[in-house]
Amino acid sequence: MNSILQIQDLKKVYKDGTEALKGINLEVKEGIVFGLLGPNGAGKSTLISIIITLLSKTKGKVYLDGLDLDTKADKIRSRIGVTFQENIKESNLTGYEILKNHALLYGMSSNQIKIKIEELLKLVDLKEFVDKKIEKYSGGMLRKLEILKGIMTEPKILFLDEPTLGLDPKSRNEIWSFIRKLKEDGTTIFVTSHYLEEIEKNADEIAIINNGMIIENGSPKILRKKYKKIDESRYDSLENIFLSLTESESEDY
Amino acid sequence: MKKYFRNRMESIGSLIQPMLWLLLFSVGMSSFFQNTNKGFDYLTFVLPGMIGFTLLSASINGGTSWLNERMNGIVKSYMVAPISRFAPLAANVLTVLSKALIQGAIILIVGILLGAKISLAPANILVSLLLIILFGFGFSGIALYFASKAPNNGAYHMVIFMFQMPLLFFSNALYSSEKLPLFFKIVVNLNPMTYLIAGLREMMVLTDSIFTFNLLKEVLALLAFALFGILIAIKAYKEIIDQE
Q1: Is the dihedral of CA A142, A148, A152, A155 positive or negative?
Q2: Which of A82, A252, B23, B221 is a good FRET partner for A28, with 20 to 30 A between their CA atoms?
Q3: Tell me, what's the ipTM?
Q4: Which residues of B touch A90 (CB under 8 A)?
C-alpha cells in the first residue's frame, strides 16, 4: 500500500517560543482511516494546520500525494478536503448553495456540481433539507453537510477534525457509517477525535501525540496486543492505553 | 452578494439610511444654505456628499462581513481551497464596491427625482466612477485592516466609527469648507473624502469639461489613499494567513 502522507522531522515553534511540534515523523497509507489522538494541547491542531497549509512550519518536510508542501502547497490544496471542528455558520444560504459555493472554489462547473451533489445526497439523509437554509439544520445535519463539503471535490485525503463532537449517539453512528462508505470508495480519511471507542472501532491505524511528539503509532489491534502482553488488566482498551501513555508523558515533563 | 440581497434588513437598511440623510439634509438644512454654493440648491450640493457617505457605510459593512467570516471560520475554508491567497480579500473589496455602486446609483436617481441638477454626460460619469472606486479601495482597505485585527464586532465598530464621523463632518460633504476656521480647513484638506466629494461635485454639478487641474489633484490624492488602503489591508491579511 502506498503512502499518501509522509512527515519527516516536523517542527513548529510559535513566535512566543512555544514548541508545539518537536520533530514529528509520520506516514499514512493510502485508502485507510487514520486516527490522530492526543490530549488537549498535544499538538494535534498544529500538526493538521500545517499539513492543510493553514499554518507555516519551522522545520521538516511534508509530502502529500508525492507533493512537497514547500513548493506545491497550491496543488496540495486541490487534493485535500477539510472538515473543521466548528460548523461554519453561513447565514441566508441553503445547504445546496453552501456546497455549490465551496465546489466553485475548486473549479467545478455548475453541471458537475449538480451531479455530484445528487450523488452525495444518496449517501446521507439530507435530500429533504438540502434546499432549506442551514439555520433550520440540526447539529447532526450540519456535520453531515460539513463532511459533504469536504468530499465534494473528491479529495485524495479528507481531514476530519472531531467529526462527531457534540452529537447524539445515533448521529455519531450515521457519521461513521458515512465515513466508512467514503473509505470504501478509496478516500483516505485522517481523523482526530476524543471519542476513543469510535477510533478504536473504525480506524485502521492510529498515532498518539503528546507534548509535540508521536509517542505511539500502529493499528489499534496490534497496539492492544502489544500492551496486553505488558499488563492485560491495565491495558484492556485503547482508552486505557492512551490514558496511561499520556499520563506518563506528562509526568516525565 | 446573494447573502446581502437575502438579508433584507441589511439590504433595505443600507438603502434607506443614505436616502433618509439625503431627505433630512436637503429638506432640513436647505434653508440655511440657500444658493450659497455657486448658485445651485443645497440638494444638488449635498448629493455627492451622500454618495460619499454611502461609500463609507458600504466599506464599514464590508469590514463587518469580513470580521464575521473570520469569526465563523469561513476564511479558514478559503485558505485551504486551491485559490489565490488574496482572492478572498479582493472579493471582499469588490463586493463592497458593488454594493456602494448600487446604493450610489439609487441615491443619484432619488436625488434627480427630488430635483437635483446633475450632469449625466458619459465622460463625467466615468470619471465619477473612477473617483468612487479609488476612494472605495482606500476606505475598504482601512475597514478590512481593522476587521482583520479586531477581536470581536464590538471592538471593530468602536474603532471604525471613530473614522466614519470625522471623515464625513471634517469634509465638504455637507457644507462648503471655504468659511471654516483655519484648523478645520487644514483637517478638511487632509481628508481623502474631501477630494472625492470635490471631484464628484465637479463632475456631476460644476463643469462641462472633465479636464481640470483640480480633478488631477483629486485623482492623485485618491490614488494615494487607495494605495494606502490596499497596502494596510494586505499587511493585516498577511498576518491572518501566515499565523506565526
Answers
A1: positive
A2: A252
A3: 0.82
A4: 3, 72, 74
- Does the distance separating the beta carbons of A91 and B7 come in below 8 Å? yes
Instruction: Inspect the interface and report whether the beta carbons of B80 and A74 lie closer than 8 Å.
Output: no
B109, B97, B102: which is closest to B14 by C-alpha? Answer: B102
DSSP assignments along A66-126, one per residue: TEETTT-HHHHHHHEEEE-SSPP--TT-BHHHHHHHHHHHTT--HHHHHHHHHHHHTTSS-
Strand partners, A190: A34, A159
- Count up the domains in chain B and report the number: 1
Domain carrying residue B110 = 2-241
pLDDT digits over B200-227, tens only?
Answer: 888 887 655 555 667 888 999 999 999 9
Indicate which CATH number applies to the domain containing A106. 3.40.50.300
Q: How far is A85 from chain B (nearest CA, A)?
A: 10
Question: Are A200 and A220 a contacting pair, CB within 8 Å?
Answer: yes
**pLDDT digits over A175-211, tens only?**
898 899 889 989 999 999 888 889 989 999 999 999 9
The answer, for A80 touching chain B at a CB cutoff of 8 Å, is yes
Residue B199 CA: distances (Å) to CA of A110, B102, B134, B213, B216: 43, 19, 12, 11, 9
In this complex, which of B72, B79, B83 lies closest to A54 when CB atoms are compared?
B79
| A89–chain B Cβ distance below 8 A for any pair | yes
A229/chain B closest Cα distance in angstroms? 43
8 Å CB contact of A15 and B244: yes
φ, ψ at A116 (rounded to 5°): -65, -40
Cβ-defined contact of A88 to B244 (cutoff 8 Å): no
